[in-house]
Design a protein that fits this description.
Elements: E1 5-9, H1 13-27, E2 32-36, H2 39-51, E3 56-61, H3 70-80, E4 85-90, H4 95-105, E5 109-112, H5 117-128
Parallel strand pairs: 1-2, 1-3, 3-4, 4-5
């Protein structure tokens, strides 16, 4: 069985690099860390990974991205993969979008940018403990 996957989605490459560094530092080689720069790329990557029998356990998504917003992405992911832990990491989400993601995507948590590394890691751990 392959390692589980944590997927990070953000249109800013520096944010993805930062997330990957923090996740690798905390969780080491226990997971595969994948990144996508927009929702369409994330959905394609999820399909590829599931076809290759990888288990995606966490998706961390920005909200404000070109094309599809993060709440819509998380709802689409939830429709196919309800057990994935979904976290929104954003500096710009409005309350309506967050509530929509909570209601229709079972959003685990919404964290504001700039985020606290310890808060992010504890949020991931608490989400994973429910799997």
């Amino acid at each position: 069985m392959s390692k589980p996957v944590i997927l990070c989605v953000d249109d800013e490459r520096i944010m993805l690099d930062c997330l990957r560094t923090q996740l690798l530092s905390s969780f080491g080689n226990n997971y595969i860390y994948e990144v996508a720069e927009d929702a369409d790329e994330a959905l394609e990557l999820i399909q590829e990974l599931t076809q290759e029998n990888h288990s995606i356990v966490v998706v961390i998504s920005d909200w404000l991205m070109p094309g599809m917003k993060g709440d819509e992405l998380l709802i689409r992911i939830h429709e196919q993969f309800p057990k994935i832990v979904k976290i929104m990491l954003t500096g710009q989400a409005d309350e309506v979008a967050v509530n929509r993601a909570k209601k229709f995507a079972n959003l685990h948590c919404c964290i504001s940018k700039p985020w606290s590394e310890s808060e992010l890691l504890e949020t991931i751990k608490s989400g994973l403990s429910k799997l």
